Amino acid sequence: MNDQRSARAALLREPNFRWTIGGAVITSLGDQFTLIALPWLVLVTTGDPLKMGLVIAMMSVPRAIFILLGGALVDRYSPRSVLMITRFVNAALLALLATMVFANRISLPVVCTLGG
User: Fold this and answer.
1) Are 96 and 114 in contact (CB under 8 A)?
2) Phi, psi of 48 (to 5 degrees)
3) Is the distance from CB of 106 to CB of 45 less than 8 angstroms?
4) Taking the CB of residue 25, how many other CB atoms lie within 10 A of it?
5) What angle do the packed helices 79-102 and 49-76 form, to 10 degrees?
6) 49-76 and 15-46 helices cross at what angle (nearest 10)?
7) What is the pLDDT of residues 47-93, one digit of tens each?
8) Higher local confidence (pLDDT), 88 or 115
9) Neighbour tally for 38: CB within 10 Å
10) Cβ neighbours, 10 Å, residue 53
11) Is pLDDT above 70 for 22?
């Protein structure tokens, strides 16, 4: 029991571990908020639950496709590099979507395309 506590304390003293855990928590929260915010955006802007369901369905299509592609890329390249690139692209697309929402230039095809 005491060995587990000392091992846990040693991990928490390690800066790389803290950065990794902090980044994972922030990324997970952002992903979960996105899964709620995009359908809500469509429901608020259109008022149509059918369109909201369409956005939810369209959000799962890229995940299904890119799981296969991501597996092949990770086999060939560094998993860390692939993860960092995909997170950067995800952040850039969501930033573009947020900019379009604030500029009031949003449409359903844009949400379906950028929100995936």
Assistant:
1) yes
2) -110, 115
3) yes
4) 10
5) 150
6) 150
7) 889 988 888 888 888 888 888 888 888 889 888 888 888 888 888 98
8) 88
9) 22
10) 13
11) yes
Q: Determine how many CB atoms are found less than 10 A away from the CB of residue 5.
A: 9
Eight-class DSSP state of 77: S
Cα Rg of the chain (Å, integer):
18
Q: What is the DSSP letter of 103?
A: T
Looking only at Cα atoms, what is the longest distance across the chain? 58
Torsion of CA 13, 18, 20, 21, to 10 degrees: 120
26-37 residues labelled b (16+ CB within 10 A) or e (exposed)? eeeeeeeeeeeb
User: What distance in Å separates the CA atoms of residue 116 and residue 67, rounded to the nearest whole number?
Assistant: 13
Structure tokens at 58: 């369209």
